[in-house]
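Can anyone check this?
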Amino acid sequence: MARPLSRRTLLQAAAIAAAAPALSETTAGRATAAPAAAAVAAAALDVPSAWTVRPFDPEDVSLGRGLFADKRQLMLDHARGYDVNRLLQVFRANAGLSTGGAVAPGGWEGLDGEANGNLRGHYTGHFLTMLAQAYRGTKEPVFADRIGTMVGALTEVRAALRRDPAVLSVPGRFGTGADQVRGSYQYVDLPAAVLGGASAITLSVWVRPTHDAGWTRVFDFGDDTARYLYLAARNQAGVPRFAITTSGAGGEQALNGTAALPLNQWSHLAVTIAGGTGTLYVNGAAVARNTAMSLTPAALGTLKNNWLGRSNYSADPVFAGAYEEFNVFSRALTAAEITELQSRRAADASTGRGDLASYAFDETTGGTFADASGRGLTATLRRTWGGPSHPGFLAAYPETQFIDLESRTSSDYTKVWAPYYTAHKILRGLLDAYTATDDDRALDLASGMCDWMYSRLSKLPESTLQRMWGIFSSGEFGGIVEAICDLHTITGKSEHLALAKLFDLDRLIDACAANTDILDGLHANQHIPIFTGYVRLYDETGEERYLTAARNFWDMVVPHRMYGIGGTSTGEFWKARDVIAGTIGGATAETCCAYNMLKLSRALFFHEQDPKYMDYYERALYNQVLGSKQDKPDSEKPLVTYFIGLTPGHVRDYTPKQGTTCCEGTGMESATKYQDSVYFAKANGSALYVNLYSPSTLTWAEKGVTVTQTTRYPQEQGSTLAFGGRRASFTLRLRVPSWATAGFRVTVNGRAVSGTPKPGSYFDVSRTWRAGDTVRIAMPFRTRVEKALDDPTLQTLFHGPVNLVARDAATEYLKVGLYGRTGLSGDLSHSLTAVAGKPLHFRLDGTEWAPFFEGTEDPTHAYFRRSEPKVVFGGRDSGVANPAKPDGTTLLDEVWAGAPFRNKGALVARVRSTVDAWVTARLLSRADGDKVVSTAGAASYQP
């Protein structure tokens, strides 16, 4: 289908029109409106009407030099260097296409990975999204070229899945062979008469195995698992095995080889049976003989399943490798004849072709193989899962996982691992590829996937859908609802909107809409992206329950299940509300969770500009997300964490599990979209939101304005905005972080702006902006702690927005005191000593503290045990032990909870009133209380 004008194209048109006169002359001499207003109005159609603010396109915001650009550059290098044919390998293999010798990435993206590679294909979707974001953010042609390669290949894959399988011809031992790519699930189906009921027989074949899986069948002729004969490339000992039986595995008469077949080399195998003796030959040598082999094909009768490459035992893997020269003779060839077959085709040997069946496998097209025996037993190439696939289907595995899920009642990821989750990643990647490059093939693939999903899911009863989506892992569907809604805005197809609603998980929606917290025990990342999708469903349908549920859900996570770095989950799951210290372990804060919480926060902000969403965004972005990316180049791996353990002395693992995990996928995305939430605009164009302080340049096409933000934030405690372009009137809305309690000062062209900025709000500056205008924001950082909700003595340290971690190999919580030199403001930084030449690095009691966002492999302590054994003010020790209440709150905690103090007198008054309360409560003696007050009065304090 023809692509409609993109919002980006329309905005570019608007910008061009804005530079032209507002009126133009028609040929009739009449004035008409220039197209700018119409273009802008049309562009607005791409933004849901429910959004009261809207984001800018990635092309509109460029990153300047700094922390984000440095992290992104590492990921861009990975995006340029990784061979995309490795990602495409699993798709091409599934379709029976040539993989060009490419090696699958492995890990979750390969058949040998976790759960048999049942999630393969997901990583390709993430990679496409990364490439799309990289291209939109840099306009480097290499990224568009790689997108084109991948989209073209996926188009070929879908077409191949819609056809019967076709031979994949490869060089053979003598001529050509037929390759069965691992992951294609293809085998050769022979007619039932192939064995001919022979009482003596020879089966001869050339094979080139490419994988060492056990029990793959070179051939298997049988009815079931009771009557059969087979030749396995590898038995449990790793050597070839021939067996024949009429009574199942216990009655097998067998021949076992002595050595494993070499991989990626041609080997000749032959089995002869005659006169009660069976012999197995490997490359012309007799390696096994059984003189008590009484069974022959005649004893088996006519068999139903006569296969090359497939087993009658359904759990056995399909043979991976190539075939050439399969011949069946109605006699036992001699050893000399077997030897002769090592150097020439049967047709050229004294044996001649097999008289029962003879397949040269020299076909180069089609899906059948001619029988040269004269019996006309044409063989057919088939897939174990049937096929062709249904229209629109696209995946790196067959439709079988989707089918299995529909009857499944419990989770088993070795059988079904989140097929709709994987579908989401591919769908999202295709949509992003289309948005970035205008490639209609990507849109056609995405639309086809949703057509296929609708045709499948719309036929299922509601009860089946609810059961499916409620199953842990197997029923996970990620952010597919969001992607489908985004597709619907492009296609306008009613079936696509109806499809999005088929993913309603009513139990979850209804509970969260009623503000009933049911998160305890749920898998975190299975559920977070669901709500981003439900917000988009609200946009498309206007049904309030979706938005209400999403808002309430967010509040159940932040702060009730949030660690200081912004992450959530322990061992991938949520525990009870407000349990933080009790959940800290080596598998906390799954990186995907932070990625998806950022997306949800952003989506909710589009509807309600509550500063808490952007406060959280800054926290998670500047700490967990940045810190999840290792500061090291690597073209083969993205180097992103899966879990970030918050236990003492934890060392981050940037090559988690077996690789190609979900978190590495979202990590690739995060590192190529750092600019996506720096600026938003009011939907009617009346205001510009500056959400994040990050070096960047915004091109606001509708206004004809540019805004260049220059800063070294968070090393610098402020930022500067410089305006360019034409004059424009709007309100500049500057986010005042909730932690900015030491002040937030704004000047325009050197003059202070009146007003009182409030932490955790936006500060407005309204005027007509002109080229050359300069806004300067200063926000001094304070050092503070945040306490675990369930244990106030377990704390994490912040300097402004930056979480500081102690670099120490100890595996016990460090005991840290901070009150001894606290200033009147309550700022704890006076207890820290800056490390020269290392911004945001400090020393405390001999231990170095560094920003969490630094992607190193140092052992770190994100949490520490607060220890203030003595009452100390301004470095002066009162000699009094610091008493504590049963909940762990100490006397000093209550004193400093009143900060900031205007002056020393205000602090001493706070000390006196607190002491009096503790003496009254019998938590402190009067004598000790007097010492405390006296010490506070005698001490000197920093501001």
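Reply from J.R.: I decoded it. Confidence is low (pLDDT under 50) at residues 1-45.
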